[in-house]
Every structure is written in structure tokens, then in C-alpha cells.
Amino acid sequence: MRYIDEFNDPELARRLLDEIRATVTRPWALMEVCGGQTHSIIRHGIDQLLPEEVELIHGPGCPVCVTPLDVIDKALEIAARPGVIFCSFGDMLRVPGTGRDLFRVKGEGGDVRVVYSPLDAVDLARRHPDRQVVFFAIGFETTAPANAMAVHQARRLGLANFSLLVSHVRVPPAIEAIMTAPACRVRGFLAAGHVCSVMGTDEYPDLAERHRVPIVVTGFEPLDILEGIRRAVHQLERGEHRVENAYPRAVREQGNPAAVRMIEEVFEVTDRNWRGIGRIPGSGWRLADAFRAYDAEHRFDVTGIRTEEPAECRAGEVLQGLIKPTDCAAFGTTCTPRTPLGATMVSSEGACAAYYLYRRMTDSPAPKSAAQEMNPVG
Amino acid sequence: MADLATESPEAVVDPADWTCPAPLRDQPVVVMGHGGGGALSAELVQQIFAPAYGNPTLAALTDSAVLDLGGARLAFSTDSYVVRPLFFPGGSLGDLAVNGTVNDLAMSGARPTHLSAAFILEEGVELAVLARVARALGAAAEAAGVTIATGDTKVVESGHGDGVYVTTAGVGLVPAGVDIRPQRARPGDAVLVSGPIGLHGVAVMSVREGLEFGVETTSDTAPLADLVAAMLAVTPDIHVLRDPTRGGLGASLNEIARASGTGVRLRERAVPVPDEVANACGFLGLDPLYVANEGRLVAFVPPEHAEAVLAAMRAHPQGTDAALIGECVADHPGMVVVATALGGTRVLDLPLGEQLPRIC
Amino acid sequence: MCLAVPGKVVSIDHRADPLTGLIDFGGVRKQACLEYLPDVRVGEYVIVHVGFALQRLDEESARASLELFGQLGLLEEEFGDAWEQAARQESGSEAR
């Protein structure tokens, strides 16, 4: 058992698809919460294989998309300071703040580094005692144990030159916010499997009950996603709304208690702004009092940075399935993958970009001439 | 922490105001992505270099220019090499500097004969390191059957360079009757790749500071001119050759599709991706189709010659694992579409810049 | 969010603080923090995210899931165009 190839089997995928087709009788809109699931769906073309009754809405489970503009601007400000080594996961380098991104700061001489693990940033702090090392601690519940361990280690090692710029978010309050939004179309959730690997599933039965919505804890390989969809559709067709675990190999009801303990020691729940959405109560974590000395916002005095978010695109409505990308006036005109207005047009997994690319594929317009599309030689 | 959130009024989810971040495209400064071989690189050429000195030869989009000089058809190419670290599993800067330029020449069907080598050295570089690079370069030239005919050396102050940079240029003669360029891709052409992809990119990443991981993968860096000669011996009518370096197979196929106004259909499961490459890409969140190669080529061959060319490739040491991976089509011009193993499809777009490890 | 991949614990450094082990991801080896799975053993599979083992993978559950999928939709039907069929035929010879 390698836990990957087995869950990519095309023959088993066909059986799951057949079963979904045999079960579904009415249109259902399901939201996969996690960006990793969206990636897998697009990468394997799963959305095109589903019966037309099943619509997948790509949810707000991408930390890159939901990190608010203020926090990006704070990161840019800190990263540009002399003497700072600013460490980040690769995802965040291209996310624009006001007028620039971390790549640009790096291009202008800032010491911005991509790390694989937050412990790598702790190690940098140990090796560069004369520099201030800041780690951009973004992410959901899955990433929180790693970031918590980093600051815990820094304190244990007495590393006064290490700090975290924290913008952690939590899934259950986001589900709550989506379900209470006016005109919400989501009828079932594929919950984020790895978030539940850490946190367990305790927080979901109440959500499922109050909003009368099936919540199926779902993994990331193609068969996992199809199984999540199959179970959600099955419940919906029978009028049920339970929490089910379709990812039992990696998710226990109690989660990972050691990881949860560390999160609770280092962080405390706070309200947080989600980019483009606004404030969601209790939807984030910040450093607890005992670790406040490691808060980069205070150390670099950037708490005063305020940024107005421009409201140029309707990505939010797309993300909730309220409109199709093609309903947006900007779609394909002022907003294209070359000149995106929103994250959904940026990566090929984004709902708008996927629509755009497939429309190009289907319409087959004449490509630009070779001279216009000159490419680097070599 | 004066969390901003606690000071703003509580928002209901109003999707109309939900905006998402978009990457900045109009950078006023050079960023690393401009060297990534993707859309940003293309824009640099399009917006800066073409207006400054564009001409029909440069606009031909080939890996090397083919010039008619005194009755001979001369292929001419240049490339700069800035790899870090200088030595990596399976190769070094010296190997890349020779093989890269040799391969660019070979992609127009030329037999490379002469190279130049210009060094930019940072003050403080150990001479022993430089000697290792030079020896590797000499050995690679000998293996590729080319002569280093001229060279140059410049030194920059400490801190103004990154050890050793090398620029090579090369020339070679294109045989009569051979016309290989991306514009010649035609619907119906078979798309062949000469072997497993992603090895170079993964080998280099595995020793890059901050990412280090253990893998028994070595770079595929190799000269391909001899393989190309073996393919041309089957038929001179090969339409397109490209060595998928930066940006990987995905970038090369997109460039060909755009230049020729054709579409490309790729069968995902037919693309030879070694397990180590697939697994390294898996944990870094990268797509093997965008990972760099230094000893592979992709060929567009008329269908009637595909089988014979593939057989010739497999009979050559540089092409033993060559595979038919897809075809050129009239549909969706300018686009590359992948048939996934599950039976779905996805669009393989031109990458923006360099791929970054992701957590999402 | 949350790119996390399964890997096999190859060795554990019990003296490391935090607890660290070497994980094999199908031929790719990388250190990971095992502090959140203190009783994990060599040979077990874990799910790793940004250098941290977050949960052990349960083989019995995995087999049960695959068995369930195998019992579904036994009806064979022809679907897909020639291209898809060609893709399926290719699937015997691919590397992954």
C-alpha cells in the first residue's frame, strides 16, 4: 500500500462515477472547501466526468486567496526592512499587496526566502543571530501545528531574533458564514480532510444539524473526491444531513490531540478578516499572550497599516456558486488570465480561469500571430 | 495584537464585495519569474527586446537562428548559464553550458561544430572551483564533438555576482532539405519525447539550499545532436524539434502550438514520468510537465514517419525510453490539452514564471 | 490549502528535539518532525505537511475503502470517445 496510486485507479473511478450517476435524480451544488481538493479536481478533470446534476463550487479554502490585503502589506513592509530575512511558503510570493508583491520586494533587494517548513526559518534564525528572521505564518488548521512548533522552538532556544507574522484562519467559522449568507446555494460540503486529520470532526455535527447540510470529510486523491461526492449525493437524495468520514485512513474523530494541544498553547482564537469577504467572528488564530513577544506586527510596528480593498471583481459570487464566471461583465474582457482581476482567474485551477481556458478550447478562436507572441530564444 | 479585524465592523458575507488577489504582471523591475521560461520571459522579449532590435530572424522563435551565409545554412545560438549550485547530481554548470547550446543548435537539425565560452567570475571564487567547471566544460565539449573556438573572461566585485556565470554561443551547419521550426507543426503530426522527463529539475532542486531532499535522481544533461542526426537519417521531413528546458514540456508544447496555430493533445499516462520525479513533485506541489530537462527533446513528426523515427530514437542511447505522447490537432489552436488518466481533460497552459513549492 | 502527502517512516532520531524522522516518499527522502506522533514506529505510513507528520495512515481503513469502491457499479458500459479509449490502453505502459 502506497496510499497514492491505489486511489488513482481509473477502473474504480468509473465505478464510483457510475454509482453517482445511478443515485442522482436532481441538481445538487456541493462545495469542496479546500484548495487542495480544487487542485485535484481540475488536475484530473473530475468535474467533467460528473453527471450534469452535480455541480462543484470551489470554496474559499486557499490561504493565499483569503489572506487580507492589510496582512500582505505588512509582510511587504517588513520584508523590505534592512537586516530582515523574510521567510514564506512559495505560495505567497506572487500574491499582490498594494502595488507590489514579495517577488518585487526581493527584486528590489529585500532578503525574501522560500522555505519548505517553518522549522527551516527557525534554523535560519539560529544561523544568523545578527539578522531578524520573520516567518509568514499563514494557513488553515493543517499548517497551524507546524507554525506553533516553530515559535515554541524559538522560545525554547532563546532565539530573540525570530518572529511570526500570523494570519491563520479556521474552516468551521467559514462554513458557518457561507451557510448564513443570503442566497446561499451550497447543499453539501466536502470538508477538508487534512484539516480534520489535525482537528478531528467534533466541530461539524452541530453545523450539519443547524444548517441541515451533509458534511463529508474528504481526501485529495481522485477516488477520495469521488467518494466524498458519492456520499454527499447519497445523503441529499435521501434527505439526510449527517457528518460522514470518507477519509478514514487519515482522519480520526479526535484528530491529533498532541497537535491540538500545541495549537491551543501557542495560539488563541480571534476574529479575522478574509480577503474580499470581510470579518468572520472567531475565524482565526493569533499568538497567545505568552508568545506575544514573537509577534512580528509588534516587533516591526506595522499594526497601524490599513488598506482599503478594491472591489473590482465578482470572484466572491463565483466562489459561492451564486453566479457563473460568464455572468461577470469583466469575464473575458477586462479580466483574462493575462490581466486577471481576481484569484479565480489567476491559476488554471481557478473557476474563472478554467472557464476561460475551456471556452477558448471549445470556441477555437484564431491564435495570435507568431510575431505578436514572440518567445525567448533558447 | 491590535488585530485589524477587531476594529472593523462585523461583516456579513457579501459575495459582491468578495475580491481575490491577482499576481502583478506589470513589474517595473526584473523579478526571478522573468528568467523562468514562461509567460513572463516571453513578455520580456515581446515588450523590451523585440521593439529594440526585433527582426524576422529573431521572430522565428527557434532555439537557434538559421542563417544563409555564403551558400551554407548556418545555425547560430547563444545561452547563459546561472545554475546554483554549480555542481549537482549528474552534472555541473560546465555540462549545461555545452549541452544547452549544442542542443539549441541541434533543434534546428544542425550538426554543431564550434562553441565560444565567456566567463563572468565573482571576485573571491576559488580557482580550484573554476578549474572544476572548466574541466567539466572541456569534457562535455569533447563528448559532444564540438570545439571551444574562442572565449572571454570578466571579473566582477565580490557581492556583484554569484560565483561563476558562463555564456556560450555556438554554430553548426544545417543539412540540405532540413527545415525544422515550430511554425511547421501540422495537424496529424505525432508528438514524440525522447525519454523520461523532469530529471534535471528534480536533481537540481534536491540540492538547493532550503529544499534539500534525498533522491537517487541525476540530471539528464546530455548532448542531443547525435540523436537528432539519427532521426534525420530516417527522414529529413521532421517538422519541429524543441528541447524542453526551463518551463519543461508544458512550456515547449505551448510555444509550438502558438507558433504554428495548431492544437496539441497529450495523453498524460503516455508521458514517461519517473516515480522519483512524480513523488518529488508530489510533495513540493509541482507539475512534472513544467519541470526542466537538459537532455530531452520533443519532436513533431508526420504520422507516416512516426513509427520509424520512434524506432530510430529507441535504438539510440539518448532515446532508449522515447515515447509517443500525443498528437498535433486542428482543434483548439494555440492550446495544449491533456487527456487525464481518469478520462477527463485539462488545459496545460503556459506557465507564468518559475514554479514554486506550494502548501496549498 | 494543505498539500500533505503520505510517506513511510524509515528511521527515527530519538535524540533530536523536536523528535525527527526520515520519511520516504516513494524514493524521495526528507526529514520530518514527528513530535505530533510521538509513538510512531519505523515502517508506518504518515501524512506529512510542511515538514510535519500530522497523522498516521491506517492500512485497514484504506483497504476497506478500496474494497467498497470495487463492489460499486459493477455494470460495465461502453463510454468515452476513441481518444479516451486510447488513453486507457496507454495506461498499461506508463511510469507512474
The Rg value of chain C, from CA coordinates, equals: 19 Å
Order of helices and strands of chain C: EEEEEHH
- Share of residues in helices of chain C: 10-25%
| Oligomeric state of the chains in view | heterotrimer
Q: Based on helices, strands and strand pairing, what is the structural class of chain B?
A: alpha+beta
Q: Number of helical segments of chain C?
A: 2
Low-confidence stretches of chain C: 75-88, 90-96
Compute the separation of the termini of chain C in Å: 25 Å
Task: Write up this protein.
The complex is a heterotrimer of chains A (378), B (360) and C (96). By secondary structure, chain A is α/β, with parallel strands linked by helices. Chain A has 2 domains: 310 residues, HypD, alpha/beta domain 2 (Rossmann fold), CATH 3.40.50.11740; 48 residues, no CATH class. Helix content of chain A is 38%, strand content 19%. A 6-stranded mixed beta sheet of chain A has the order 4-3-5-6-11-10, with helices on both faces. In chain A, strand 3, helix 6 and strand 4 form a beta-alpha-beta unit. In chain A, helix 1 runs parallel beside helix 12. Chain B is built from 9 helices and 15 strands. In chain B, strand 5, helix 4 and strand 6 form a beta-alpha-beta unit. In chain B, helix 3 packs parallel to helix 4 and helix 6 packs across helix 9. In chain B, 29% of the residues lie in helices and 23% in strands. Chain B has a 7-stranded mixed beta sheet with strand order 10-12-8-13-11-14-15. A 5-stranded mixed beta sheet of chain B has the order 1-2-7-5-6, covered by helices on one side. Chain B has 2 domains: 107 residues, PurM-like, N-terminal domain (60s Ribosomal Protein L30, Chain: A, 2-Layer Sandwich); 167 residues, PurM-like C-terminal domain (Phosphoribosyl-aminoimidazole Synthetase, Chain A, domain 2), CATH 3.90.650.10. By secondary structure, chain C is an alpha+beta fold. Chain C is 23% helix and 32% strand. Chain C has a 5-stranded antiparallel beta sheet with strand order 3-2-1-4-5, with no helix packed on it. The longest helix of chain C is centred in the C-terminal third of the chain and has 13 residues. The two termini of chain C are 25 Å apart. The C terminus of chain C is likely disordered. The chains are: A alpha/beta (378), B alpha+beta (360), C alpha+beta (96). Chains A and B meet through helix 1, helix 2, helix 3, helix 4 and helix 5 of A and helix 1, helix 2, strand 2, helix 7 and strand 15 of B.
